[in-house]
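Crash report, auto-generated. Payload:
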Amino acid sequence: MDTRENNSPIFPQGDKASPDYFTGMTWVKMLVAADAGLNCQIGNVVFEAGARNNWHTHPGGQILIATDGVGYYQEKGKPIRLLHKGDVVKILPGVVHWHGASPDSAFTHIAINPNAQKGIVEWLQRVTDEEYNHFK
Amino acid sequence: MDTRENNSPIFPQGDKASPDYFTGMTWVKMLVAADAGLNCQIGNVVFEAGARNNWHTHPGGQILIATDGVGYYQEKGKPIRLLHKGDVVKILPGVVHWHGASPDSAFTHIAINPNAQKGIVEWLQRVTDEEYNHFK
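Recovered output after restart:
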């Protein structure tokens, strides 16, 4: 019986994310397209240390599954939450939030966008360094 | 910068799956409940070598993300497909199928059930040893 653990990343790194919506280097590997007949878009996202996306909302909500490194997640008006491998974040439709890596570690998560027939994402303003560095 | 890889499993093993619907030891860790407001149920499933679920369908479809080991996936009337870490399976609503570990390796996948408002799963007959051993 093969019991070897394989500690390589689960997915290839993917394509560079748009600098219009991300601060710092981020890569996205699309896994399931929104039009695949499942109303569910799925991608794997790799953030270098310090990288994060803009504030945004999802019309159909989102689930994040942290798989490697140490990340940040914040909903508007709440403190930044630290994310580690195995953490799952449930984001209800319309909730203003952002996510990314922590300052000293890269971070990888799977991003699941259910109810894709309602739309995928609505981008808002950039997360400032002041907001990003507010973690306590 | 912390670049260490952590090769422990992403999720804890979870609870034993029902022997009514699974052949061989299988564990399920629920990650997102169907009633969490996202119309999307997500669980992590660990199959010991040789274990598999019954034939079944999903009214809202399903996506499998293989994360460890070597697995089997089969749709009715098609050959068994071998699954490795990083493979993604898109299963349309109503498609009769089963999945599980290969004979010589445990297997872990994340199971994503979108459109959960339409129902999660409809179980059918057990996968026989003859069907299971039909991989070429």
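Post-recovery validation: Chain B has a mean pLDDT of 95.
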